[in-house]
Structures are given as C-alpha cells and as structure tokens.
Amino acid sequence: MSTFVNPAQTPAIGLSEEQAQLIDIAASFCRDKSPVDEVRALLEEDTGYNPDIWQEIAELGWLGIGIPDTYGGIGLGLGEIVPIVEQMGRHLLTTPYVSTVLAAQAVLRGGTEAQKNEILPKLASGTAATLGFCEDHGDWNLSMSRARAPSRVTNWRFQARNIWCRMCRKRLIWSQPWLSMIKRTS
Fold first, then answer.
1. Which of 84, 160, 166, 184 has its CA 20 to 30 A from that of 148?
2. Do 128 and 156 touch, CB atoms closer than 8 A?
3. How far from chain centre, in Å, is Cα 36?
4. Domain residue limits, the chain
5. Interior CA angle at 50 toward 100 and 134, to 5°?
6. Phi, psi (deg, nearest 5) at residue 150
7. In a 3-state reduction of DSSP, which class is residue 44?
8. What interhelical angle do 97-110 and 113-125 show, nearest 10?
9. Which of left, alpha, beta for 114 (phi over 0: left; psi -120 to 50: alpha)?
10. Distance between CA 9 and CA 147 in Å, rounded?
11. H-helix or E-strand containing 146?
C-alpha cells in the first residue's frame, strides 16, 4: 500500500547560507590550487600533496571544522566538511584532508580527555594524519583482522600491516593508546 505525501507538507532540504558560501570558497580554492599537471606530479612525490597548500587549508580553518572549539577547532558539524570534500574530489585536490578529519573523529569518539587536548589542536592547526583501513588480505571484516595488541604488563604494542593507508609514505604516526582502540588481545 502506498502513501501519498503532500510536497507542501514536506520540509525543504537544502543548504544553509553558510554551507553555500563554503561551497563557493572551496570550489574556487580547489580549482585554483589543483591544475591537472600538478596533480600528476604530486602523485609521484613522497608526501603525495603540496605542504604549502596544506598550510593554506589549515589557515582557512577547514581542518578545525569538525573539531570542537574547546580543542582548537571551529566546532561546526560534519555537514560543513562534506562540501569541502566534494570540491576537493571535483577538482582532484590531493591532500590528507579526509584522513585527517577521520583521525580527528576517531580521537573525539575514542580518546581520553588528555589525548583530545594533546592531539586535536595539532590536527586543527595543520598536522596531517592518516588511518589504515584494511590489511593485506583485503578483508574489511574486523573479525578477520590479523592486527594484534599483545599486553606487556602495563603497555600495549600495536602490530598490524595495512595496505590501504592513504598518504602514509611520510606521515607522522602517533604511538598513542587511542590507536589501539580496536584490538584483539588473544
């Protein structure tokens, strides 16, 4: 049985004025900073991105959008990050933006207060981060993970081999407890 929905009673879905402005700014920035020949050259570089452009992104405040202001961010939501990511994809701007945003969200959801105070301001101000997504067997199922975190009395040592690790070649890897939030101990 189908139900008729009156369009006049359905709330409009659209962008806020702030989101629309962000799209315009992001489109212009990404278009200007990402000529195709430079994208090709960056793919051959060790970092995979232009550090000067990355610093400009930090100065624009884009890295702090999803980070609360108490940790050095702007305190907006993930909805304000999406227009930036869309424009980066549309214009092939190669940066560690998505991986840094995801790392910040992982710290927000799983880090201690001390870890949030230490890590999030660094991410908001321009330190790039990355995450490993799957192992060499290519299985996304966490129950199939070969990663281990054997206990050594009071310390944990996380051991894993990730093959899909965006922009990992020369990335600062934090050796912090929050990295082993998902761990198998047996």
1. 166
2. no
3. 23
4. 18-131+166-180
5. 40
6. -65, 135
7. helix
8. 160
9. alpha
10. 51
11. none
| Contact between residue 77 and residue 149 where contact means Cβ atoms under 8 Å apart | no
Of 165, 17, 22, the closest CA to residue 85 belongs to 22
pTM, rounded to two decimals: 0.71
Alpha carbon distance 66, 80 (integer Å): 8
Q: What is the dihedral of CA 32, 18, 89, 97, to 10 degrees?
A: 90
CA dist 145 and 132 (Å) reads 12
109 contacts 119 by C-beta, under 8 angstroms: no
Strands 155-156 and 151-152: antiparallel
pLDDT tens track for 77-126 = 888 999 999 999 999 999 999 989 998 998 999 888 998 999 999 999 99
Q: What pLDDT, in 10s, does the model give residues 41-68?
A: 988 887 788 999 999 999 999 999 999 9
Best CATH choice for the domain 18-131+166-180 from the list 1.10.8.60, 1.10.540.10, 3.40.50.450, 3.40.50.300: 1.10.540.10
Residues whose CB falls within 8 Å of the CB of residue 17, separated by 6 or more in sequence, listed in order = none
